[in-house]
Amino acid sequence: MAVQQKITVTGNVSDATGPLVGATIKIKGTSTGVVADIDGNFKISAGPNDVLEVSYIGYITQDVKINNKSKLTIVLEEEKHSLNEVVVIGYGTQRREAVTGSVANVSGDELNQIAATNAAQALQGRVAGVLMTQTSSKPGAEMQIRIRGQRSLNASNDPLIVLDGIPFMGQLSDINPGDIKSMDILKDASATAIYGSRGANGVILITTVKGMQGSPAKVSYNAYIGFKTVFHKYPMMSGKKYAEMRKYAGLYTNSLDESDDTDTDWQDLFYRTGITHSHDVSIQGGTQGGSYSFGAGYYHDEAVIPTQGYDRISIRGNFDQSVGKYFRFGLSTNTSYRETKGSNISIYNVLSMSPLASPYDENGNLKRTVRMPLDETFVLTKSVAEDLKDVWLNEDKGLGSYNTMFAEVKCPWIEGLSYRVNVGLNYRTAKNGVFTGTGVNNTNPDAINSASVQQDVTKNWVVENLLTYDRTFAEKHHVNFTGLYSAEQTTFERTYMSGRGIPAEYFQYYNIGSATDEVSVNPNNQNYWQSGLMSWMGRIMYTYDNKYMISAAVRADASSRLAKGHQWHTYPAVSVGWNISREKFMQKFDWLDNLKLRVGYGETSNQSIDPYSTLGALSTRPYNFGPASTGFLRGYYVSTLPNEELGWEYSSTWNFGLDFSLFGGRLSGTMEYYVQNTNDLLLSVSLPATSGVGSYMANIGKTRNKGFEMSLNGVIIDNKNGWTWDAGVNFYVNHNELVELASGATEDVGNRWFVGHPIDVIYDYKKIGLWQEGDPYLNILEPGGNVGMIKVEYTGDYNEDGTPTRQINQEDMQVIDMEPDLIGGFNTTVGYKGFDFTVIGAFQIGGTLISTLHSSNSYLNMLSGRRGQIDVDYWTEDNTDAKYPKPGGIMSSDNPKYGSTLGYFDAGYLKVRAITLGYDFAKLKAVKNFGISKLRAYFTVQNPFVLFSPFTNECGLDPETNTMSNDNSTMAVTMEGYTGSHKLPVVGYNTPATRNFLFGINLTF
After folding, report:
1. What pLDDT digit, counting tens, does each position of 261-298 carry?
2. I need a labelling partner for 400 at 20 to 30 A (CA). Which of 33, 276, 455, 899 fits?
3. Greater confidence, 726 or 120?
4. What is the 3-state secondary structure (H, E, C) of 575-632?
């Protein structure tokens, strides 16, 4: 009998992008096996001629002959039906089948199917329960991100972003989407609790591209160039229609600059064709026991509005290296420089111009201004804006540098035990410079010039100490423990200065101190704050036989933003999972690959209020007396009261999930239901004027979010005669409700908050039609009103004879919910040999869209003939079925009475975001001979069309919002009787949506 001598075999298991954590390595034909560590490394004792069976869920199992080798490098190939089985869960990774919380994953390849300024735009419609809303459609603008709705009234609702393991203090636009390997979104409290108060609104984990140990250098170049045209011009009246409407209204006659035989399309004179292009170069590889990746990118985006644009230069690098068996260290850096220009150029003047006025004088030269019946407006065309680009500026310049260093040591005496320290050092600066030259955008050619400059600097450091124990016992018991102690501090500084009368206009905003008039350093525009957070956390995850899983965590945070004695808060999280499909009684269902039930409960807290809110505030006020030599005296007054009891706003969440995979991975998906209750809302409480103080911050109020989410992915055709067809769809519904307000109040009309309704609502009259000839009670409900005016719903009482007891007044204003009934997205890819064809889109059912263009907010739907007019179907004696009121009817502040109600539309739509056709040349022999491993060319059309949108069907515009209501380019949403202070997403007169045509290439060698 011969006894085979054992040898120690070490190795690394990875896929095409990096190590595979938790891959299983078994000696074939035996039960002996090990699991790869966080770096994909493993060590096993085996015979020199044994065969190792290497497997990982979602990858093709591979048999590797040892052949007396002591070191192996194994690269697994991903199955096409994979559910992307490895996800980042925060302070570690986990196989998807073992995940018990609500975690969604989107790969970098999926994100880059849409060319976008930042990853948030590419993420739109990809993940159920994650809503991306444009704050502005100008180049470089950020997206508002909401994970499972809005919780807080005053504190931040923004999710935490974690970049390569360290909380990120920048914005998503600072990160080049091409550098992202994957994004993992933690949605429920059982998953986010390990991040404490910072994860109260969900967590987005971003992992950047890294190299692989021992692999040769790989160079990649990805680029595209595109052209942008207006999706649809704002629907302004032609000269003929406008002249007819003005005469019918009978309020205004043509000015000296207007003529009924003139038809000027001011938008045609203003727009340009925008150009966008992107270039990314990277090199990745590995050394013995280490890996590296370096890259650089340049992104340029021009708007269709002249001089508006955005540029970003990004540089990233990371490496990690093992030293011996037990020590590893590394560094990751991400630095970007960005410039946004042209925010001062607004389309409003263009839209408000009368089409009956010509921009040219009798000699064919552009006029400086155009007069309308009551308005004289500066002429703004493409050539005018470009000629003024050096004396009419609004520039934002910023630099962000985000750096992470780590060191990790494994305990040689206790297998699976390691200690790691992460250090994050971050710096971000933003400078906004504004200059308006003499007479620019002013009817007075001698109007004095002005300039301002604002500088923001944010500095942040983070230190995290992590103790991890990860071990598998008896092949069935897997235990992972993570302990954390961390501290961080953020410092913010702002300086602002303005002046008028800059002596030399080439100074622009760079020498405001030389101004001859009104040099101002307003104390209300200066700012400084510093805040800190200290935390500890413990989490344990246990899995038995890949069937039963439990995860439990406890987190405690202390925030400097809250009052003494209320700064610490501790909260738990626990979740369990059951892989039902692994039970013996399920084995007969061979069509069922995976069926897992998840239940989780967790608590999180929110402290995202302004620092020093507990201390109250003093404000300054100038007085009209004082020494002539020093100017007016300035005094102080209490504007906000202190609150020594201010504590945490906290939420508790129940999450129920079901994951499934059928027919060999041909159909897979996830269903989830959640309920989240938020208590002790951080709310600024208004005080009566008699108190002499405006407000104070307090813990008052409750909200609730509950919803359902579903994601489905299917392989319709699986490589049949060269054809493949994959498709995916996700949809969700979220119901947000304000449960309680301060002092038991049921409403706060001034802030538009109503118990029993969502946080953001419309509070206005309800339009039910137009008054028609013969309608009863017109004289009672609308004394002095006219036929053809807007008819709103009366909610008052009636007399015995059926007549209303009063006229319409503010008592008839109603709460109108804006929430959609369903939101979702879809994607599908059809492939044939080297060709691929992809369609990506989104949809929404129900909800209310606010168009400030059609309402009273924009003064572009006045129906009076005073200035430019949106083309609408208005009431006349021959057109009584119209939607819009009679021109020249009863008015309110130059608009039709109840004109705000004209801006509400059904928000439903189905939108195709991108269509891409590509071809992969890498399989061609001539290409392979050049050492090229990937060569793909593609053509993409973005925003090609919209279907099933009542708003688009009426006016042709994109139904997705293009601004927040208090954006500088559009007016606040004003209801009859009051002005809302909230930021509501609306369609306004911002930079118009575009249809983009892109040509790109992906090259790797």
Report:
1. 999 999 999 999 999 999 999 999 888 888 899 999 99
2. 276
3. 726
4. EEEEEHHHCHHHCCCCCEEEEEEEEEEEEEEECCCCCCHHHCEEEEEECCCCCCCCCC
Phi and psi for 145 in degrees, rounded to 5?
-110, 130
Q: What is the DSSP letter of 876?
A: B
**φ, ψ at 655 (rounded to 5°):** -130, 130
Model confidence band, residue 974 (pLDDT cutoffs 50, 70, 90): very low
Q: How far apart are CA 699 and CA 695, in angstroms?
A: 13
**pLDDT above 70 coverage of the chain, percent:** 95
3-state secondary structure at position 245: helix
C-alpha radius of gyration, the chain, whole number: 31
Task: For residue 465, give the H/E element and its range.
Answer: strand 450-473
Amino acid at 294: F
Question: What is the mean pLDDT of the segment spanning 958-979?
Answer: 56
The continuous run of DSSP H or E covering 190 comes out as helix 189-192
Check pLDDT > 50 for residue 977. no
* Closest by Cα among 752, 816, 755 to 981: 752
The amino acid sitting at 571 is: Y
Which residues, at least 6 apart from 431, have a Cβ–Cβ distance to it below 8 Å?
Answer: 396, 397, 398, 453, 454, 455, 456
Question: 700-719 burial by CB neighbour count: b if 16+ within 10 A, else e?
Answer: bbebbbbbbbbbbbbbeeee
User: Is pLDDT of 630 > 60?
Assistant: no
Q: Where are the beta strands (DSSP E) in 259-382?
A: 274-287, 290-302, 309-323, 327-341, 369-371, 376-378
pTM score, whole prediction: 0.87
The tens digit of pLDDT for each residue in 512-524 reads 999 998 888 888 8
How do strand 7-14 and strand 71-75 relate by DSSP bridges?
parallel
| Contact present, 965 and 981 (Cβ < 8 Å) | no
Which one, of 393, 411, 405, lies nearest residue 507 by Cα? Answer: 393
3-class DSSP assignment, residue 385:
helix
How far is residue 351's CA from residue 988's CA, in Å, rounded to a whole number? 12
Of 164-173, 663-672, 856-865, 900-909, least confident by mean pLDDT is 164-173
**Residue 981: is its pLDDT beyond 70?**
no
d(CA 387, CA 778): 54
- Residue 324: partners with Cβ closer than 8 Å, 6 or more residues away: none
CA distances from 64 to 51, 55, 67, 79 (A): 6, 11, 9, 18
Closest CA to 335 of 313, 356, 353, 362: 313
- 228, 303, 553 from 268: Cα distances, Å: 15, 15, 60
DSSP code, position 281: E
d(CA 385, CA 400): 30
| DSSP output for 731-745 | EEEEEEEEEE-GGG-
Sheet holding 166-167, edge to edge: 103-107, 180-186, 203-208, 160-163, 166-167
**Contacts of 721 by beta carbon, 8 Å cutoff, 6+ apart:** none
Burial class of residue 774, CB neighbours in 10 A (0-12, 13-18, 19+):
exposed
Return the residue matching tokens 């697994």: 76
Q: How far is CA 599 from the centre of its chain?
A: 28
Residue-level pLDDT at 983: 64
